[in-house]
Each structure stands twice: as C-alpha cells, then as structure tokens.
Write a structure and sequence with these properties.
This protein has a single domain, classed as Sufe protein. Chain: A. It has five helices and three strands, in the order αβββαααα. The protein starts with a helix and ends in an 11-residue tail after the last helix. The structure holds FE2/S2 (inorganic) cluster (2 copies).
Length: about 130
C-alpha cells in the first residue's frame, strides 16, 4: 500500500524539530481530525537555508512533511511557493488516494510559513496572494 520512499521518510524523517530564530513559521491543521503540521524556515537572501518541521499526524503526513522539507531546502522562495502537494506525493512515489490530503497539509504549512516571513519583512511573495 505504501511506497518504499513513504516508509523510509516515515521511519527516518528528515529535518524534524524547530528553529528558534526562524524567519517564518507556519502552522496548519485539519479541524476535522485535529492533525497539525508546523514548518519553520530560515531564509537568507531569498534562499531557504534551513527548514524544520513538527507534525502531529499520520505516517503519510510525517512522510509528506519530511519530503517537502527536503524539496525546498536550498531553494529560492519563488521555487518553494510553487511546491504543490502533488509534487510532494510524486516525490514519495505516490500516496494512497485516501492519504492525498495529508500532503496538502505540507503544501499549506510551507505557504503559511512563507506568508509569515512576508508579513514580518513587509514583502510580497508572488503566488501567495490568494493564500490565507
Ligand atoms: Fe487528519 Fe488526514 S485525518 S489530515
Ligand atoms: Fe491525518 Fe494523514 S494527517 S490522515
């Protein structure tokens, strides 16, 4: 049912933890089930130099958070904004259809953290206008 990559990122999640002096923090939750994902970003010169996450959720949510942090680490803000939950799921070699919503949490937590960064620094990030 789960790909090897999902199992690997669930058993050995990358970038777990928090960043104390984070430049952007984003938290999203699914009110129906209470699952929560929190993403911390360290940003220098428009580049995501560090990223950490904390997820209270199922294995797919943890694997999605882990993969999503790997996908945006070292990338520019512009690239991170474009990360879709579909791309996260594809990088994991797929998620079962009933678990796709778990990868949506990862996309939204990253966008929320970028929005927090944008607000704190009084900048606008293209592609985030419609996200709130
Ligand atoms: Fe909560 Fe899937 S059951 S996000
Ligand atoms: Fe709750 Fe995946 S985060 S089912």
């Amino acid at each position: 049912m789960y790909s090897e990559k999902v199992m690997d990122h669930f058993m050995n999640p990358r970038n777990v933890g928090e960043i104390e002096d984070a430049d952007g923090v984003g938290q999203v939750g699914n009110p129906k089930c209470g699952d929560i994902m929190k993403i911390y970003l360290k940003i220098e010169d428009g580049i995501i130099v560090d990223v950490k996450f904390k997820t209270f959720g199922c294995g797919s949510a943890i694997a999605s958070s882990s993969m999503a942090t790997e996908l945006i680490k070292g990338k520019s803000i512009e690239e991170a904004v474009k990360l879709t939950n579909k791309a996260v799921a594809e990088a994991l070699d797929g998620l079962p259809p009933v678990k796709m919503h778990c990868s949506v949490l990862a996309e939204q937590a990253i966008k929320a953290a970028l929005l927090d960064y944008a607000k704190k620094n009084n900048v606008t990030i293209e592609g985030l206008e419609d996200f709130n």
